[in-house]
Amino acid sequence: MNKRNFPSPLLKNDGWKSALPALISICAGLFTGCMIILAVAVSDSEISIKSGFEAVKLILFGTFAKGRDASGDLVFSLSESNAGNLLFRATPVIMTGLSVAFAFKSGLFNIGAAGQYLLGTSATLITALSLPVSIPRWLVWLLAFVAGMTAGALWGVIPGILKAYLNINEVLSCIMTNWIAANIVTWIFEDSPLRNAGQSGKIGYIKPTSMAGVSTAKLGLDRIFPDSQVNGGILVAILFAVAVYILLSKTVPGFEIRICGSNRDAARYAGISEKRLTVFSMAFSGALAAGGAALYYLSGETEFFWSTYQSLPKEGFNGIPVALLASNNPIAVIFTGCFMSSLSVAGQQIKNLTSYNEFITDIVIAVIVYLSAFSFFISRLIASKNRKEVR
Amino acid sequence: MSEYVIEMLGITKVFPGIIANDNITLQLKKGEIHALLGENGAGKSTLMSILFGLYKPEKGEIRKNGDAVSIKNPNAATYHGIGMVHQHFKLVDVFTVLENIILGSETTKYGFLSKNDARKKVLALSEKYGLSVDPDIKVENLTVGMQQRVEILKMLYRENDILIFDEPTAVLTPKEIEELLKTMKSFREEGKSILFITHKLDEIFAVADRVTVLRKGKCVGTVNTKDTDKNTLSQMMVGRPVELKVKKDKAKPRETILQVENINVPSRLHKGKLAVKNASFTVHSGEILCIAGIDGNGQSELVGGITGLDRITGGKVTALGQDITHLPIRNRNSDFLSHIPEDRHKHGLVLDFPLMYNFVLQRYFESDFQHLGFIKTDAIKSYSEGLIDAFDVRSAEGTGTITRSMSGGNQQKAVIAREFDRGKPLIIAVQPTRGLDVGAIEYIHSQLVRKRDEGHGVLLVSLELDEVMNLSDRILVIHEGEIVGEFSPENTSAREIGLYMAGTKGGADCE
Predict the structure, then answer these.
(1) CA–CA min distance B171, chain A (Å)
(2) Is B369 within 8 Å of B363 (Cβ atoms)?
(3) Whether B349 contacts B341, CB under 8 Å
(4) Residue B308: what are its φ and ψ, rounded to 5°?
């Protein structure tokens, strides 16, 4: 599928062709998710049928939910704060989605975005929180962002080198480096002075960067989306999406990457150093994933739970369905990233406004994500059907 | 009862933008070998796919023994006794011969696989038809010729009596071809009916009783082989008179372009073994040097050593006076080498790219096609339009056609257009006419001769003795990685070359 989506002015219908399977699978996912919600409502005496229908509404329109009115009914309206939060949560997922999509384009499956994300988080936080106060804060922000991306790039290089020079499957090495990253990060912060010492009863968190005066500029977005966490990070993510799109479809290195991703032997035949390109692709992919982490934690408000050795950040893995849904088109990743975060906003709303607990919500979200990723198969079906007809 | 065992009457199959089969009628008599002849894209494969139940025709009907039948899928084809040996074998590499043969029609006892009866049946069949093959060897360890035997045994095991052979000789050595044709004849004596798809006129005259010729989706006619000749048939197929023999003057070799000295190249298949041992030769400008040999005797690795796709572990390669033994592929491509690769799908083309990008596969970074790192799509487009015109590359949507959707012949033409237009001093052509029809072969041969006359050095690797004898100015025979003899086509015969290829003559002591 990643091969079919070839951005070219000559293939005018390609955008629609690759959007169709994504839409089909999103609908299938939402439908199944809603069915599960209703099934739970029917079978669980704690949850009323009415509550079930409310949850369905929230899944579909959660972004617009404003809470309950005096009579206890759900109120929906255009909610700037929800929309802003949606964009804020979309930021890291768009970046990890770009990371996975970029790797797919070069013929690699970067399942290591979670590890790259974690190391990016640590490098960003350490830089932002430990640089001397004398340095201008905007410069610290920039340095922290660059430090995060560099850390992610270096972490991506490891599976890249293993793949290019020892022919070790990148999926295996990515999974292993994920857990290595999880343990390294825990070890780094175990006795770190950067830990937030029990402020407001929370333990196990690193100080938010705002404590060092570092946080992403709002760039006026707080006026469009009042009472939300949104900041300039989403604009940075969109910029990256556009940049990756241009890199892949318009430039010489992008051309080489696509040749490599589509036919490695032909790349060699054409004189492309496909090994170096593999390492570069993994590095760039890692940098993108880590960039998502940097944007998320540089917002200033978000707190990082440092004891990561037992769990990997879900943003890393959510990049995979985001990329698949977008057929690896970097521009489409912006929208599928927003879809993914709208699901998590909806999940939050269901948890807050209905009697469903967070576990059921998580299951429903997981089902939707899972079925959405089927766009891969649906587009394959369509592609093979087309191919038969063309022959 | 009808005289015909299978009849395809008035078959029409339309694909978007093209009529693949236009009112085609094909009638197969019981106990005959019926050849189906046509250029690439003439509609042979479509017709056979319809007979095998892979496509549904828009119009027309299929009759078996005079009764109309509907063949909706390959299982129905098997039910009607139709079996097919595909051009690209449908075998599971890691399964044994026996497992492959019974796959899809397994015999079971209480739900468990029981192979004993099947083994007996397979052994009996292979003895009866002289198709000896070890049933317990894994298919991946078999030669191509042996794999084809497995495919044939598969049909026999299913007791098919209508056998379709889709270009079965394309992958075989001359000796294997001889054996296959013999086997086909013995099937005919059994009363089986055979549909034989081929490009090779010699084979048609060797075995076929009748020939049906297709051209551009239409049926040109059905003739008895004994009432026709090669020229008539090729004219029917191409639609114009075809030169079967390449016209060329005597070569005028000039300076050395490529010098290969005692090179060793490791095998791609077997780790730690040498595929090319101590090979030495030179290619001059203005000559066609041909490497003849049976497939798998080190030709691929030899070419790989020169093009840079394979690592050379000993010896030296010099091109235009420069030592290129360890030069990166990019520099070889840019400095001196045009390379028509053995496998156009693997190396030659990025199949999922639009055609136009494949024309600049080794040139996209040149200033003609990029500016400050940005690809100049318009320049690439107009450049490829020029090549499409000049080399008559046919495709559905011109420069934007996804390369995978093109016919094999046109894909090969695209590769040849690209490599000839790059026009480097050394042209390496590895089986440049594999799987192509007479018209395309004629074209490619004449182009190679033209390039020779323009002063390029041509290194041709071919498995086909006809091509070797026809085209080359000098012939080297390679056997098990060693150059075992050098000949001039005037002073040798196909027979002699064949003996050297098979290793029965020549060898290290003869050098």
Answers:
(1) 22
(2) yes
(3) no
(4) 100, -5
| Domain layout of chain B by residue ranges | 4-238, 243-336+427-437+456-511, 344-423
> Is the pTM of the predicted complex or chain greater than 0.90?
no
Question: Considering chain B, what is the average pLDDT of its residues?
Answer: 88
Dihedrals phi, psi of A66, to nearest 5 degrees: -115, 10
User: Across the interface, do B352 and A3 touch by the CB < 8 Å criterion?
Assistant: yes
Residue A252 · residue B361 · CB < 8 Å: no
A262 touches chain B (CB under 8 A): yes
Mean pLDDT of B396-425: 89
d(CA A93, CA A314): 9
What domains appear along chain A, each with residue ranges and CATH number?
Answer: 17-78+355-391 (no CATH), 90-347 (1.10.3470)
Question: How would you list the strands of the sheet with B218-224, edge to edge?
Answer: B67-69, B59-64, B4-15, B18-29, B218-224, B210-215, B33-38, B193-198, B162-166, B82-85
> Per the structure block, which two tokens stand in for B367?
């200033």
Question: Please, which residues 11-40 of chain A have a Cβ atom closer than 8 Å to chain B?
Answer: 11
- CATH T-level assignment (fold) for domain B4-238: Rossmann fold (3.40.50)
Mutation test of the interface with chain A: which of B300, B337, B361, choosing the one with the most A Cβ atoms within 10 A? B361
| Contact by Cβ (8 Å): A49, A42 | yes
B186's torsion region: left (phi>0), alpha (psi -120 to 50) or beta? Answer: alpha
- Distance set, CA A254 to CA A107, A280, B4, B168 (Å): 13, 11, 58, 41
Nearest CA to A95 out of A297, A262, A372, A361 is that of: A297
Residue appearing with tokens 């290194």: B459
Cα–Cα distance measured from residue A258 to residue B357, given in angstroms and rounded to the nearest whole number = 11
Say what the ipTM of the complex is. Answer: 0.82
Positive or negative torsion for Cα A145, A150, A156, A160: positive
Q: Does A367 touch chain B (CB under 8 A)?
A: no
Q: How confident is the model at residue A266 (pLDDT cuts 50, 70, 90)?
A: very high
